[in-house]
Amino acid sequence: MVKKTTTKHISFQNSSGQPSLSGDTLNVCDYITNSEQIKGQLDFAPFPNLRKITFNHNIRFNILESIDISKNDKLSRILISGNDQSLDFFENNIFTLLIKETQLNRVILSYNKYNPNGWTKATAYLRKQAIIPYFLVEDNKLESEVASLKESLAQKEQTIAKQDRIIVDLNKKVQKAPTLSQFQELNNIALGRINLDFKKLKQEIKRLKLKDFNPYFREQKSNFEKLTSAAKNKATDSLGGILDLFLQTSRQIIESENGDSNSFVQGQLQGQLTTCQTLLQTKFTQEELQDLLSKQKELIKLEDQSVILQ
Fold first, then answer.
1. DSSP code of residue 131
2. How many CB atoms lie within 10 A of CB 186?
3. Terminus of the chain with fewer CB atoms < 10 Å: N or C?
4. Are residues 36 and 101 in the same domain?
C-alpha cells in the first residue's frame, strides 16, 4: 500500500506495471499493462508532502488529460529527465497541469537543453516555460463565482421587478380610493354641510339605498318563488324531491364560492348537481333549468346585500 503522506517524489517512467514505492519516491509507469495507458485525470491532492515530480523524457501520455497539482503547496520542482529535446516531450504528450496562480512563480521546471556546446540544464518557472501546458484552477472558481453572482443578480432583479409591480398596483388602488375631500363632498350631499361623521354618513347611505332596494328585493324574491312553484308543479311528485335537492345543491355551491371550501367538497356538490340536472331533463329543458339557477344566484346576491344594508 502506498503511504501517501510519506511520498515526497513522484517519478513517471516509460514502462508498464503498477505503482511502487521506494523510500519516499513513488514510481509510476505510463502503461498500467502492456496495452492499457494511464488516462483521464490524475489528482495529486492525496500527496500533501509532495515536493518533486519527475517525467522521463520518453513517457507516453497520449490519452492522459490532466495532472492536478493545485493542492500540492509543498511542490517546488518538476524535472524532465534524459538528454532529449524538450520539444519532443511537448509533442508526444497532451496532458495539462492544473495549478494555482501562486505556483506560477514558485514551481521550477528543469530539463536538459541542447546547444552548440552540448547538453546543458535549463530551468524556468512554470510561468515562463512553454513545454508543459497549464491551466489555472482559479479560473474555474472565478467562473463559478461569476455564475453565482449573475444568478444572485437575476434573482434580485426579479425581486425588484416584483416590488415594482406591487408599487404600481398600490398606486392604482390609491388613485381609486376616495380621498378625504371626496368623503367630505359625499357627506355634504347626504347630510348637508356638517363635519364629516363616517358613522352617520354610513347610516344615511344605507337608509337611502334601502329605500330603493327593499321593493326591488321583495319583487325578485316573489318572482323566484313563483318560478320555483311553477317548476314544482311541472316536476310533479316524482321529481319534486329532485328539484328541491337541485336548488339546495346549487345554493350550497354558490355560498361555498364566497367562503372557505375544499376542492373535494366542491367536486361532490358539482357531481350531485349534475346528477339532479340529468334526472330533471326528463321534464325540463336545459334552458329552463339554467334560467332557474340564474334567478336563484341573483336572489342569493340580493340576500347577501340585504344583510349588509341592515
1. S
2. 15
3. N
4. yes
